[in-house]
Design brief:
The protein is an all-beta fold. The chain folds into two domains: 105 residues, TolB, C-terminal domain (Neuraminidase, 6 Propeller), CATH 2.120.10.30; 73 residues, no CATH class. It has no helices and eleven strands. The strands form three sheets. A four-stranded antiparallel beta sheet has the order 1-2-3-4, with no helix packed on it. It has a four-stranded antiparallel beta sheet with strand order 5-6-7-8, with no helix packed on it.
Length: 181
């Protein structure tokens, strides 16, 4: 398993209120998306398609779609979901962007201001010690953190910078309030 995101679950009891008691997990070994409902105690494969067959390394829920980066294809793909987080049977997977100038996509974050399928590097890059070997990212919550992108790294342990340089893993906070896309 490599990456997960919480998904809404609408319960008929309790006034039909939305709860986040389920997650969608990217299974990069079996190339599937798996939905786990903690209250029901159930899990199931919800997506097993060709577009996942090159190692989905994360999953992210945004605007009625589940997104995932594809490590080998260097794409970010998505599929529309219903209000309980299941992929819509009538929909197909679409690639929203390809990022050919990098070596692999492990994780990503998106914000509410970027609806035009563009991307921007937040910090670091190939050969940079600023954020070596990013492993996950998440946007801050609340009015004082909405422009903060939190990023975890493995410090280059798996793939040392310039072949030899590593550092301790870390969590970094990147202020993106001045970014323009």
């Amino acid at each position: 398993m490599n990456g997960m995101t919480s998904v809404p679950v609408w319960r008929s009891s309790g006034g039909g209120e939305q709860e986040e008691v389920a997650v969608v997990v990217a299974d990069s070994y079996n190339d599937q998306l798996i939905r786990v409902d903690f209250v029901a105690g159930q899990n199931e494969v919800v997506l097993d398609v060709l577009e996942l067959y090159a190692h989905p390394n994360a999953t992210f829920l945004y605007n009625d779609h589940t997104y995932w980066p594809n490590f080998e294809r260097l794409t970010i793909d998505r599929i529309a979901i219903d209000r309980n987080g299941y992929p819509l049977k009538s929909e197909t997977v679409s690639t929203i962007t390809t990022i050919p100038e990098i070596q692999g996509i492990d994780d990503f974050g998106t914000d509410s201001y970027n609806e035009n399928n563009t991307y921007q590097s937040a910090a670091g890059g190939i050969g940079s010690l600023l954020l070596p070997s990013c492993t996950a990212s998440a946007w801050g919550r609340g009015k004082n953190h909405k422009n903060i992108l939190y990023v975890t790294t493995n410090g280059g342990m798996v793939s040392p910078i310039n072949g030899t340089i590593v550092e301790p893993a870390k969590v970094a906070a990147v202020d993106t309030s001045q970014f323009v896309i």
